[in-house]
Amino acid sequence: MSGAGSSTAHHIVLDAPGAHRLVPHEVAEPGPGEARVRVHASGICGSDRELWQGNRPPEYVRYPVTPGHEWSGTVEAVGPGAPAALVGRKVVGEGFRNCQVCDRCHAGDTTLCTAGYEETGFTQPGAMAPTLTLPARLLHPLDDAADLNAAALLEPAACIAAAALKANARPGERVAVVGTGTLGMFAVQFLAAGSPGELLAVGSSTDREALAHAFGATSFRTRHDLPAADYDVVIETAGSASAATTAAALLRRGGRLVLTGIPAAGAQGLDPTDLVVRQLEVQTVFGAPPAAWAHTVRVFGAGLLDPVPLITHELALSEFPHAIDLVGSGDPKVGKVLLHPE
User: Fold this and answer.
1) CA-to-CA distance for 244 and 239, rounded, in angstroms?
2) Would the N or C end of the chain have less CB density within 10 A of its end CB?
3) 249/278 Cα distance (integer angstroms)
4) pLDDT of the chain, 342 residues: tens digit per residue
């Protein structure tokens, strides 16, 4: 059904790698259990570049698709059976469209849903549009005073919250983060909130050393100048070919490692003999289950998570190709890029 503004508002459609259109936006009426969100902003990350370049694994994308899995907005309508109290609320939302009935979903591991992969912005319409309609059960309401620019980054923050929960760092432990991109800077903030004895940030360069310290890191090293293996917990966020081995090398015997980065084919693998002899505990994260989202929203609402310094560019949806180029430029001055509906 058409809605107000549908004759002038547009959304992005990627028909195939490198081929996009701005399409007149039709405002959908939410169906049973659904909510329609007026999008405030949508962030761009490396997986959106994969959509654009065509190197995302085929089972994790379905063209044509409207991208946008990192977003914030305000609920403007709900369908039958959805809570009416959501209307007018600022929200963020989970991306994984889990089935809710398989054994993994019942256990709370919704990112492992056995019904198959479905995710907003990859196989289902995303938020690079004026409105987004999705199941209301995926929404997480924010405080009325929440900064919606900052909230648009809560999706990557939730993925790191999942890693932090798995790492289970205890107060006073020595912890480290490998990688200083958006995920790495969120990992520093989550770990800093747990009162570590030491918090090391490891980057490929010193470009974000000052920001890491501002977020709570107590020390900073480059990957070419690593300290001795004496850390209780390491969260890896870089996704580079050597990041996992770099992270594992920092751990004490019996230490805990959480991997979040997805490197390209040919990356260095972890040595199974080293894992066994040093009795390292290794866990991984892909996406964020509801518990991690709820934790993120609580930490954000408490003022312990500050995404704003990570945002460097805000552009209109029509500037999507330029935004994609910025994200892939390798320019250290480019942080998080947000797109706003026009």
Assistant:
1) 8
2) N
3) 11
4) 333 333 579 999 999 999 999 999 999 999 999 999 999 999 999 899 999 999 999 999 999 999 999 999 999 999 999 999 999 999 999 999 999 999 999 999 999 999 999 999 999 999 999 999 999 999 999 999 999 999 999 999 999 999 999 999 999 999 999 999 999 999 999 999 999 999 999 999 999 999 999 999 999 999 999 999 999 999 999 999 999 999 999 999 999 999 999 998 889 999 999 999 999 999 999 999 999 999 999 999 999 999 999 999 999 999 999 999 999 998 989 999 999 998
Residues 34 and 118 in one domain: yes
Question: Do 197 and 233 belong together in one domain?
Answer: yes
Q: In this structure, which long-range contacts are made by residues 299-306, counting pairs with CB atoms below 8 Å and at least 24 apart in sequence? A: 299/161, 299/190, 299/193, 300/142, 300/146, 300/150, 300/151, 300/154, 300/157, 301/142, 301/143, 301/146, 304/189, 304/193, 305/157, 305/186, 305/189, 305/190, 305/193, 306/150, 306/189, 306/215
| Total count of domains within the chain | 2
**What's 55's domain CATH number?**
3.90.180.10
- Yes or no: say if 171 and 194 are a contact pair by the CB < 8 Å rule: yes
| Residue reference for tokens 């007018």 | 88
Residue 321 structure tokens: 């190709």
Q: Output the six-digit token pair for 312.
A: 């460097």
Helix (H) or strand (E) holding 40: strand 34-44
Q: What is the DSSP string of 307-340?
A: -GGGEEEEEEGGGHHHHHHHHTS--TT--EEEEE
d(Cα 147, Cα 153) in Å, to the nearest integer? Answer: 11
Could you tell me the two tokens for 148? 């919606």
Domain that holds residue 210: 160-284
Residue 3 phi, psi (nearest 5): -130, 180
